[in-house]
Amino acid sequence: MPTSRLTITGDIGGVTVNSTVTRSADGQISHDVSLPAATAGTVSSYTAGPPEQWTLNLPGHALALNDIVDVYWDAGRRYGMKVVGVVGDDVTVEDGSAAAGDSIPTTSGYAVTASRQTTIDTDFDGDLLVAIGALAAARAHLGFFDTTGVLALSLDLGATELWHWLSGGTASNPLAGKVIDYVVATQADSNVAANLKLGLIYDSTV
């Protein structure tokens, strides 16, 4: 029977906070993935559409038609963009079926990074979750998709900032009622690959 233990130490508003919580379950799933570095570039042009399209100048990219990418910039991010055009360093994107987030800036020359989504094959019933956690070395995003291909949960991760949920607390299970088939992930750093850790424990029955 796997046991997960989470210890939080620090202070909030000058008040020392030390807490250790423990959960046990019947099974566990763990992923330790290296997310490729994003490609740095700029917004080249914008077409109002519909559909809205952005052409991004991304020197050295390795993107191809129909790739699904996430686009990051200092003040925001947009996920699930579909590559609909590639001409040299210029990559044209528009919303894919699971697009979400902020609207990409339309100003020519605006700095962005773009990253092709990495798919993590993982299967679990959200109703059986006891604990789940995700941690990335860089600013990152995770999208949990159910067995029908519908986005069930979208997570923004700050660099080295743990996201987690534990059963028995005050927060509702974010994946209740969902059967997850796969996760997609990207990271914003264009300099180096970033490690992503995703772990969960689950019971065999609700």
Describe the structure in brief.
The protein is mostly beta strands. It has strands spanning 3-12, 15-24, 27-35, 39-47, 53-57, 68-73, 76-87, 90-101, 111-116, 118-125, 129-136, 140-146, 151-157, 163-166, 179-187, 194-202.
List the helices and strands and how they pair.
Layout: E1 3-12, E2 15-24, E3 27-35, E4 39-47, E5 53-57, E6 68-73, E7 76-87, E8 90-101, E9 111-116, E10 118-125, E11 129-136, E12 140-146, E13 151-157, E14 163-166, E15 179-187, E16 194-202
Antiparallel strand pairs: 1-2, 3-16, 4-5, 4-9, 5-8, 6-7, 6-9, 7-8, 10-15, 11-14, 11-16, 12-13, 12-15
What class would the helix/strand composition place it in?
Answer: mainly beta
Text of the CATH class of the largest domain: Mainly Beta
- Averaged pLDDT, please? 96
Radius of gyration: 19 Å
Helix-residue proportion: under 10%
Number of strands: 16
Distance between the termini: 16 Å
Strand order of the largest sheet: 4-5-8-7-6-9
Share of β-strand residues: over 45%
Basic shape: globular
At CATH level 2, the architecture of the largest domain is Sandwich
Q: What is the helix/strand order?
A: EEEEEEEEEEEEEEEE
